[in-house]
Amino acid sequence: MLRIHFSDSDLARTRVATSPDPLWEVAASLHRLQTKVGRWAYADWHRTTTARIRERHLDRMIREVLIPLFPRAAYFPDFLTPNQSEGGLDAGLAAVLATPPRRIERELGILDRRVGAPSWVRRLTELPERERLLGAIRVYHDTALAPAEERVRARIDAERAARGRALLDGGVHRMLAGASPSMRWEPPVLHVDYPAEDRDMWLQGRGLRLVPSYFCWQSPVSMFDPELPPVLFYPLLHEPAPGAAGDGEGEPLTALLGRTRATVLRITAAGAGATTGELARAAGVSDSSASRHASVLRDAGLLASTRYATSVLHTLTPAGAAMLRARRRRPHG
């Protein structure tokens, strides 16, 4: 359990990241490749990504270079997920490159003691070796994450919208209380299901950056070093299971509604509602097309729509939720 202690000034400085954090997603997606746990939620991504990895002959690089540094374990080095990564992949990689060698040596020592690490990682204190690592990370990102960028961004945008609505309706307390089933808000402490050892994090006026993640599974993750800027990387809900990209033409919901409307219905369910723009990005259509599809679903009683600031917010009705539940319960033979 991780216990995050807030003061009033911390609550005032708590915010949700503006976009997917590419280096955190690199780490979490590498974890998805190391386990079958939760694979149902990423089945289409896993299938297409592993095929691209094989086609580009990246298996060995990922196995021997990236996975030893991003193990699915209670620890991996903090310097690989710098705060600057919020500004995009280039900014994050530049920060990794600029990490002081003494810090790298210290964190790699922790990795070796806790998990084990190959001898070559010690050379990461040298600039040329870090440059080679960054090249490997970029190649992996372009292979595994860039093709899923629109899907990931749509889900993150929907989560940001949900957190924003919670903030407007009930303040930061409601925003924290509803962020994830893996968190429990008991003011002034946020209790977080945590894969590592029990510990306390005292924010001390620095606030907290909440980073919703598409590839993080079940348990949130934070920095190991308490002196670093506080961040909590937490999983999105993958319910119902993955979007239309992995559905075959004969899949019942797609056959009934059509591929685009099935995607619209799932995305609306997955993120506590979605705006027309978010639906358009997820379905790969224009805003006007997404609006028409949402209108058909609304007329059928599956969605409800309401004006939200300058956008229209679409939410799932009980009938829409029942349709999705029935689809998940269908017999397999």
TrEMBL record:
> Which intervals hold domain HTH arsR-type?
251-329
Which organism is this entry from? Answer: Streptomyces hainanensis
Q: Which SUPFAM superfamilies match?
A: Winged helix' DNA-binding domain
Organism superkingdom: Bacteria
**Protein name in UniProt:** Transcriptional regulator
Taken from the record, one Pfam family name reads: HTH_20
Output the InterPro entries linked to this UniProt entry.
ArsR-like_HTH, HTH_ArsR_DNA-bd_dom, Metal_resp_trans_reg, WH-like_DNA-bd_sf, WH_DNA-bd_sf
Q: Which molecular-function annotation in GO is an example for this chain? A: DNA-binding transcription factor activity
Keywords on record: DNA-binding, Transcription, Transcription regulation
